[in-house]
Design a protein that fits this description.
Elements lengths: L2 E8 L3 H18 L4 E5 L4 H7 L5 H8 L3 E6 L14 H11 L4 E7 L12 H4 L3 E7 L7 E9 L2 E7 L4 H16 L4 E6 L5 H14 L6 E6 H10 L6 E4 L1 H15 L6 E5 L5 E5 L16 H15 L2 H16 L17 H12 L4
Bound molecules: 1,4-dihydronicotinamide adenine dinucleotide (NAI) and magnesium ion.
The site of 1,4-dihydronicotinamide adenine dinucleotide has 21 residues, from α4.
GO molecular function, one term: 3-isopropylmalate dehydrogenase activity
Catalytic activity: (2R,3S)-3-isopropylmalate + NAD(+) = 4-methyl-2-oxopentanoate + CO2 + NADH
Enzyme class: oxidoreductase
């Protein structure tokens, strides 16, 4: 059976980092004798320039026909002033929506050799290993009405926090499942002291907890969660939360590691392909210079192999190779101190590939 992977390099550093990720994937496939079928699609600014739309129909179809999608990044100053339908980000949003990618997963762990890059004290970082599971297609960002209008007191504005119980159950269940396969601790984050939606969220979590007796469920109010992430980040295993809380908390948690070039993500649907991408953007300031850090994209590949293909060993090998290369002191520019020598994107790719072999 052929495992089809759609690769969407996108803009800025996207093509440089996905190129290295594809070579890494091919090396893994060779070492483990796996069949993979890689096909390329256009998204974002390059698709606007060449096809007149940020998400061409052919790209969407390619993604639908694939088992998993690897994306670089989209966007850049060139397209910033365009109307919404001609902006790169619109392509990514449309892709998430079309494929019903309702769950965004962001693992946060600290490579001990990079602990100095974190704004937090070293002793707080020990044992930090969490995943944030964020609902991605509902809540305040999508609810209607969403409008400005003239009221009796002048301008009024309304956003709507709308969820169905089924949408809540779907994401909470994923949280329980993830926790079950990790350290069996699920923290459900809400604002149940104020919001009706959060009360139903909490009731739903309680109900599901009966099906997962092996998982310890803790409820935490979102304001406290924001504080606890900084105060004691190692207490968390899996955090599950709704769209807006997850947006804010996942960026906060990402900063615990201190390096945007290191963090992967996955966006999953119920049955279609998952989308895997680094959390950083297209970094136009360093694009084309062969100095971007490809490790977030490599870690996204590891997530893809584990999540979409259940190739656990292959994923482990990639992660261990990265850990080894970092422990040996190899750095790309973003991770190194001023004046220190460092590796190019391509050299980092080669180092990680060389390090794979010892773990196969
Ligand atoms: P950014 O993440 O692209 O860059 C922020 C800073 O981090 C820059 O100084 C950049 O050089 C550095 N950086 C990012 N990734 C790096 C890597 N792998 N290696 C080394 N350094 C790295 O965020 P920014 O500057 O706010 O946005 C730039 C463009 O990217 C915008 O057009 C934005 O809309 C887009 N963007 C796209 C995203 C996506 O495709 N998922 C996510 C975030 C932003
Ligand atoms: Mg955000």
């Amino acid at each position: 059976m052929s495992n089809r992977i759609a690769v969407l390099p996108g803009d800025g550093i996207g093509p440089e980092i996905t190129k290295e990720a594809v070579v890494l994937l091919e090396e893994i496939a060779r070492l483990f004798e796996r069949n993979i079928d890689i096909r390329y699609g256009k998204i974002g600014g390059i698709a606007i320039d060449e096809e007149g739309t940020p998400l061409p129909e052919a790209t969407l179809q390619l993604c639908r026909d694939s088992d998993a999608i690897l994306l670089g990044a989209v966007g850049g100053p060139k397209w910033d002033k365009q109307p919404a339908h001609l902006r790169p980000e619109t392509g990514l949003l449309a892709l998430r929506k079309s494929l019903q990618l309702y769950a965004n997963l962001r693992p946060v762990s600290v490579f001990s050799s990079l602990a100095d890059a974190s704004p937090l004290k070293r002793e707080l970082l020990r044992d930090v290993d969490m995943v944030i599971v964020r609902e991605l297609t509902g809540g305040l960002y999508f609810g209607t009405p969403k409008e400005r209008r003239e009221g009796e007191q002048g301008l009024e504005v309304v956003d709507t926090l709308y969820y169905t119980e089924a949408e809540m159950e779907r994401i909470l269940r994923l949280g329980f499942e993830m926790a079950r396969h990790r350290r069996r601790h699920l923290t459900s984050v809400d604002k149940a002291n104020v919001l009706e939606s959060s009360r139903v969220w909490r009731e739903t979590a309680e109900r599901l907890a009966g099906e997962y007796p092996d998982v310890t469920l803790t409820h935490m109010l979102v304001d406290n969660a924001a504080m606890q992430l900084i105060k004691n980040p190692s207490q968390f295993d899996v955090i599950v939360t709704e769209n807006m809380f997850g947006d804010i908390l996942s960026d906060e948690a990402a900063m615990i590691t201190g390096s945007i070039g290191m963090l992967p993500s996955a966006s999953l649907s119920e049955s279609g392909p998952g989308l895997y991408e680094p959390i950083h953007g297209s970094a136009p300031d360093i694009a084309g210079q062969n100095r971007a850090n490809p490790l977030a994209t490599f870690l996204s590949v590891a997530m893809m192999l584990r999540q979409s293909f259940q190739w656990t060993r292959e994923a482990d090998v990639i992660e261990r190779a990265i850990e080894t290369v970092l422990a040996e002191g190899w750095r790309t520019r973003d991770l190194s101190k001023p004046g220190e020598s460092c590796l190019t994107t391509a050299e980092m790719g080669a180092k990680v590939r060389e390090a794979l072999v010892q773990y196969v």
